[in-house]
Amino acid sequence: MTFAVNGFGFASWASRIPDIRTDLSLTPGELGRTLLAGALGSVLALPVAGRVITALGAARTTTVGVLVAAVGLVALGAGLDLVGTVVATALGLLVFAVGVSLWDVAMNHEGAAVEQRLGRTVMPHFHACFSGGTVLGALGAAGLVALHVPVLAHLTGAAVLVLAVGLPTARAYLARTQEPVGVPTTPTTRGSAWLEPRTLVIGLVVLVAALTEGTANDWIAIAVTEGHDQPGWVGVLAFATFLGAMTCGRLLGVGLLDRFGRVPVLRGTFVLAALGSLLVVLGSTPLAFVGVVLWGIGASLGFPVGMSAAADDPVRAAARLSVVSTIGYVAFIVGPPLLGLMGDHVGVLRSLLLVGLLALPALVAVTAVRERPGDAR
Fold first, then answer.
1. pLDDT tens across 327-339, in order?
2. Which helix (H) or strand (E) holds 226?
C-alpha cells in the first residue's frame, strides 16, 4: 500500500505537467529547467536518507516523507493556480520531491528487508504496486483534465488521500529490533558505500532505468500531444498506458527473474524499452501506443532489481540503497533539462530517441546485479 500511495501522489502531479507548461507559457527548455527543482529536492534528501533511516527507522522515515510530500503537492498547486509564477511552482515541486524521496528510500529499505526474510524475489511486486498507484493517479487525472478541474483542487485532493492512506501504512513495517535471519548483528564490511565498485555500477544500471522510466513520465504526454497532434486527454491516456504496461511488466517479471536470473531478464527489458521509444518517435499514433506498451514493459524491472541487488547484504542495505538511489535520481537532474534542451532544437518527440542510446551502456552494466553466491533468490 505504501508503494501504491507513493505512486499515486507522483502521477497526480506528473499528469499536470502539460498544464504547467501551458499555464506558465514555457518552452520545452524552460519546462525542463522548472522540473529540475524536483531533481534538486531529491538530491537534497537522498544522500541523507540512509542516515535518517538508521536514526529513525524505516517506519518513521516513511511518516515524515508522507507529511512533507502532501505539503509539497498543495504548495505546487498553489504556486501554479494562486501565485502563477515559475518560482512558486518550482518551490512546491522541490518540497514534494524532498518528501517523496525520503519516503522512496524508506519503503525500498523495508521492501528489501521483507524480501531478505522471505528468501525469494518480491521487490518487483512492490514496484508493481507503485506502478498500479500511478495508473490510478493518471487515469483519475485524465478525467479531471477533461473536466477542466483546476490543478490546485486536483492536487489538494490528492494530498488528502496521500495523508489518509499513506500515514497508516508504516504501522505494519517490521519491528526495528528484529535482525534479518542469518545475518550478524555487527557490520562485516566497513568503509563508505560510495567506494564500492559493485554498488557504483548498480547505481549506473538504476540511473539508466530511472532515466528510461522518468523520460516517459515527464515527456510522453507532451510528445504524443504535440508530436502526434493529439488533444491533451490523449497525451494523458498515453501516459496512463505506459504506467499500465509497466505495472504488468513488474507483476509478470518476478517469475522470469526467478527462472532466468536478473542479468538476461534486464538485458531483454532494456532492448524492449529502446524498441518502444523508436515506435513512439517514428510510428503513427496507433504504433506509438504499441511503442508506449513496449517501453513500459522495458522500463519495468531495472529500478526494483537494482534495489534488490544493492540490498543483497542486509547489514549494508541502508547505506547502499542511499547511494544507488542518489545515483539513480541523477537521471531526474540530467533528464528534464537535457530533454527540454533537445526539444527546443529537434522537438520533444524526436528527443525521446535518447532512450534507445541509453540501452547500450545498460546492456554492459547489468552484470553487476547478478545474484551473489548464497543469495536465496
1. 887 776 667 667 7
2. none
CA atoms within 13 A on the CB side of 22: 12
Global pTM reads 0.73
**Can you list the alpha helix ranges (DSSP code H) found in the chain?**
2-14, 17-24, 28-56, 58-78, 86-118, 123-146, 151-169, 197-222, 232-260, 262-282, 285-298, 302-310, 317-346, 348-351, 354-365
Written as nine digits, the cell of 183 is 545475518
- Collect all residues with Cβ–Cβ distance below 8 Å to 226 and sequence separation of at least 6: 347, 348, 349
Chain Cα centroid distance, residue 347: 24
Task: Find the helix or strand (DSSP H, E) in which 377 lies.
Answer: none
What is the SS3 assignment for 27? Answer: coil
**Mean model confidence pLDDT for the chain:** 85
Q: E strand or H helix at 373, and its extent?
A: none
* Nearest-angstrom CA–CA distance, 349 and 281: 6
**Looking only at Cα atoms, what is the longest distance across the chain?**
59
